[in-house]
Amino acid sequence: MIARLSFIGFGEAAQQFRPALRACEIAAYDRKTDDEATHAAKFREYRAAGVVGLSSPTAALGGCTAALSLVTADQCVAAARAAAALPAGSYWFDMNSAAPHTKREAAAVIEARGGRYVDVAIMAPVAGKGAEVPLLVSGPWAREGADMLCAAGFGDITLLPGPVGAASSVKMIRSVMIKGIEALSAECALAAHAAGVLETVIASLDASWPGADWGARFDYNLDRMILHGTRRAAEMDEVVASLEALGVDGKMSRATTACQRAAGAAGGDAPAGLPAKLSLLSAHLRQ
């Protein structure tokens, strides 16, 4: 069994993973503990999840065998730089939705200190799947890292031959479509709602794609965007950077980024039902 497993970042994904994970001790640090407004709530989450909550990455990483980095995409490299306490020979599983060149920058920081960096791409929504969510891993420590993830309790791990950045390339390019469809869903549904023809548009889409259930799909996509649009926008910034590094004009993905960011800025929990979500977004966008 892993002696000590540390979370760097303890948001939705980490909390979904936690129940299935096996280690003698599980520690966690999240930068929300640095903010007086969110400090107490985050420590309540630590206690509810049965983890040792700590107030610095140094404290969380001391003596750990493996660390799971689960921060927002824009904090991927910063988290690696703050991981000076990661013991030599310990594994740093970078599970963030970041561009290949961002992952390589983070890997250079970890490897320079004697850590073992593994590029991990989370290939489906974590909610409902937890530690059974599909993971794609790459890099020089991928095989050994996959064994450790399996020992920790993860159940769906695929090795991808190639260097650090290979797994994240798949994740980034896939997100062009996944997050782009969410943005198109919002644009289509908002327009139909404003025109008073939402049900007719959904019926027409269902007729074109039998079994797609566009009403349920719109509802789910908007729910994800309202709740996680800010985080998704940070990921899409990395997607755009990935595309540009490949010589591809990311204008569609830039528009997706703006749409995700606007939905996330609506704030609060997503209300139940598609019409309520559309009313919330419409009012927010008018402001």
Any overview of this molecule?
The chain is an alpha/beta fold and 287 residues long. The protein has 2 domains: 4-162, Rossmann fold (3-Layer(aba) Sandwich), CATH 3.40.50; 167-286, Orthogonal Bundle (N-(1-d-carboxylethyl)-l-norvaline Dehydrogenase, domain 2). It contains 11 helices and 8 strands. Strands 3-2-1-4-5-6-7-8 form an 8-stranded mixed sheet, sandwiched between helices. Helix 7 (166-195) crosses helix 9 (214-245), helix 7 (166-195) crosses helix 10 (251-264) and helix 7 (166-195) crosses helix 11 (274-286). The mean pLDDT is 96.
Structure in a nutshell:
The chain is of the alpha/beta class and 287 residues long. It has helices at residues 12-17, 36-49, 57-61, 76-81, 100-112, 142-152, 166-195, 198-208, 214-245, 251-264, 274-286, and strands at residues 4-8, 25-29, 52-53, 66-69, 91-94, 116-122, 135-138, 157-159.
Task: Label this structure with key terms.
287 residues; alpha/beta; Rossmann fold; N-(1-d-carboxylethyl)-l-norvaline Dehydrogenase, domain 2; 2 domains; eight-stranded mixed beta sheet; 11 helices; 54% helix; globular
CATH topology of the largest domain: Rossmann fold
Structural class: alpha/beta
Number of helices: 11
Q: Per the principal axes of the C-alpha atoms, what is the gross shape?
A: globular
Average residue-wise pLDDT: 96
| Total DSSP E strands | 8
Count of all domains: 2
Under the CATH scheme, which architecture of the largest domain would be assigned?
3-Layer(aba) Sandwich
**What is the alpha-carbon Rg in Å?**
20 Å
CATH superfamily of the largest domain: NAD(P)-binding Rossmann-like Domain
Poorly predicted regions are: none
N to C succession of SSEs: EHEHEHEHEHEEHEHHHHH
Domain Phosphogluconate dehydrogenase NAD-binding putative C-terminal: 192-261
Keywords: Oxidoreductase
Protein name: 3-hydroxyisobutyrate dehydrogenase
GO molecular function: NADP binding; oxidoreductase activity
